[in-house]
Structures are given as structure tokens and as C-alpha cells.
Design brief:
Number of strands: 10
CATH topology: TIM Barrel
Helix content: 25-40%
Distance between the termini: 35 Å
Protein name: Aldo/keto reductase
Order of helices and strands: EEEHEHEHEHEHEHEHHEHH
Largest sheet: 8 strands, parallel
CATH class: Alpha Beta
Radius of gyration: 18 Å
Strand order of the largest sheet: 3-4-5-6-7-8-9-10
Number of helices: 10
CATH architecture: Alpha-Beta Barrel
Strand content: 5-15%
Organism: Salinicoccus siamensis
Number of domains: 1
Family: Belongs to the aldo/keto reductase family.
Keywords: NADP, Oxidoreductase
Structural class: alpha/beta
CATH superfamily: NADP-dependent oxidoreductase domain
InterPro entries: AKR, Aldo/ket_reductase_CS, NAD(P)_OxRdtase_dom_sf, NADP_OxRdtase_dom
Length: about 280
């Protein structure tokens, strides 16, 4: 599995399994287990997904069946807005660990910037504390725009290793990518397949035919070629296997350019500038 390196010297697999909108239960547990057995070494969840317990069970079963150690896996979870602020962050982190049956996380993210700048900064200071006390391997953010990143970097000490954002051929966010690259902060895409919507795009289907790959593999490979970490979601065993099988081919510069040109600045999820956590 190819890895990306963070500015702190730690690394992360470039592809992982996302479990957003996967209900707690057997499907979630089995998807995580199947992913690990079939070579995935990164699993991404969040407190607000309400499936950390099943993810934890899947991790346990997957580690056992794959014959690997916990240290071979990279596990991410996220702090929800309700738990922002002094005195809340460590408690929320411990709850996630308990749910996942883990002693530590490889990556803990602030899930959204929120609309209260001071609260965002106070919360990041708590995240820094977790990191400085060696309770978590890496800390980062999710859904932060350039303006949020600027504020964070100006008012805090520990730079996030990653920013996980909505990113797909209809929302390329090139200015954000250039900004993060210039500061050696990795960009990670959630919803890379736009809930399967992108798979019916004519350009994507054409490139899939040209490469002999599936539309999903083309989009995931495009993420890889653009230097992102990506976490496609699936609970279907065949799709889970297909989504990681993207290292045996590459896209031409022309094909990458054709996909880049599909950008419409079209969000599938909430606007980070205004989102307060009400779902």
C-alpha cells in the first residue's frame, strides 16, 4: 500500500475505507473486517456516524483473520462540534477509544470548523494537548477552508497534518489544494465517488473504457494521481476489493485534465462557512 508522509515524519496509507452513513451493526463490522483482510490498512470513522462500536469489532476481527498487529493499522476518528471547547475534547476522545476498543488513534480530527472562531481555537489547543501528551499519533482537521486554516495557523502552535474535505471531480477545490501543499498539509477526500453519482458521468465512463477499469477505479486513481489520501465507502465485498485495486494502472495527463475540467464547484455536503452541526 502506497503511503503519504506528514510534515511530522509519520505516514498514512493513501487509500482507506470510509464508513460515513454505514449503520452500526453487522454490515459495518463485516465491511471493516473484509477491508482489512483484503489489504486495507486505514479505516476512517467519526463519533457522529454512531458506528464506532461496529468499526471496533470489525477491526478486532480483521486483525485476527489477517494475522496482523494493531500497529499495522491506521485508524481515524473525529471530534463532533457538540464536544468542542475546554474540558470536553479528552472526554470525547476517550469515549471514541472505548467504543473502538483501542488504546490510541493514529489520527484524530476536528470534524468541522464551526462558526465560532474562538471556540475553534480553544478546541484545537485541547487537540494539541492530546498530541503533546502522546495520547494520539497525529491531529488534523476536516472541512476547513483556507480562511479557517489561516486563522488556525496564526493562533496555534501545532500544525494539522491533514485536512479532510469534500473533494471529487465536481468539486476540485484547487485553491485549497495549492494552499495546503504550500504548507505541507496533506489533503484527504471524503465522498470521492459523490455517493456513486459520479459513476454515471460520461467523461468518467469514457476514461473507464479507455483504461479497462471501472468508473470508481478511475475516480479513485484520479485522487491518487492528484496526491490526495482518499477513503471511498462501500459495504459490498466486491466493491471494497475493487476500490483498492488502483495501483496497477495510471491515468495520462490528458485524462487527468479531462476529469479536472468536470469541476462545477458543486457541494454534495454542507457549506463549511456556515455549518453549525445541525444535521
Amino acid at each position: 500500500m502506497r503511503e503519504v508522509e506528514f510534515h511530522n515524519g509519520n505516514t498514512m496509507p493513501q487509500i482507506g475505507l470510509g464508513v460515513f452513513r454505514v449503520e452500526d451493526g453487522e454490515d459495518c463490522k463485516n465491511a471493516v473486517k473484509h477491508a482489512i483482510v483484503n489489504g486495507y490498512r486505514s479505516i476512517d470513522t467519526a463519533m457522529i456516524y454512531k458506528n464506532e462500536k461496529s468499526v471496533g469489532e470489525g477491526i478486532k476481527a480483521g486483525i485476527k483473520e489477517a494475522g496482523i498487529d494493531r500497529s499495522d493499522l491506521f485508524v481515524t476518528s473525529k471530534l463532533w462540534l457538540d464536544d468542542y471547547g475546554p474540558g470536553n475534547v479528552e472526554k470525547a476522545y476517550d469515549t471514541s477509544l472505548e467504543n473502538l476498543q483501542l488504546d490510541y488513534l493514529d489520527l484524530y480530527l476536528m470534524h468541522w470548523p464551526g462558526t465560532d472562531e474562538d471556540l475553534m481555537i480553544e478546541t484545537w489547543h485541547e487537540m494539541e494537548r492530546l498530541y503533546n501528551n502522546n495520547r494520539v499519533k497525529n491531529i488534523g482537521v476536516s472541512n476547513f477552508m483556507v480562511s479557517h486554516m489561516e486563522t488556525l495557523l496564526q493562533r496555534t502552535d501545532v500544525k494539522p497534518v491533514i485536512n479532510q474535505v469534500e473533494y471529487h471531480p465536481y468539486l476540485v477545490q484547487n485553491d485549497l489544494k495549492l494552499y495546503l501543499d504550500s504548507r505541507k498539509i496533506v489533503m484527504e477526500s471524503w465522498s470521492p465517488l459523490v455517493n456513486a453519482k459520479i459513476l454515471d458521468d460520461e467523461t468518467i465512463k469514457e476514461i473507464a473504457e479507455e483504461t479497462g477499469k471501472s468508473p470508481a477505479q478511475v475516480v479513485i486513481r484520479w485522487n491518487i494521481e492528484n496526491g490526495l489520501v482518499t477513503i471511498p465507502k462501500s459495504v459490498t465485498p466486491e466493491r471494497i476489493e475493487e476500490n483498492i485495486d488502483v495501483f496497477g494502472f495510471s491515468l495520462s495527463k490528458t485524462q487527468i485534465s479531462r476529469i479536472n475540467q468536470l469541476n462545477k464547484d458543486e457541494r454534495n455536503g454542507p457549506d463549511p462557512a456556515t455549518f453549525t452541526g445541525n444535521r
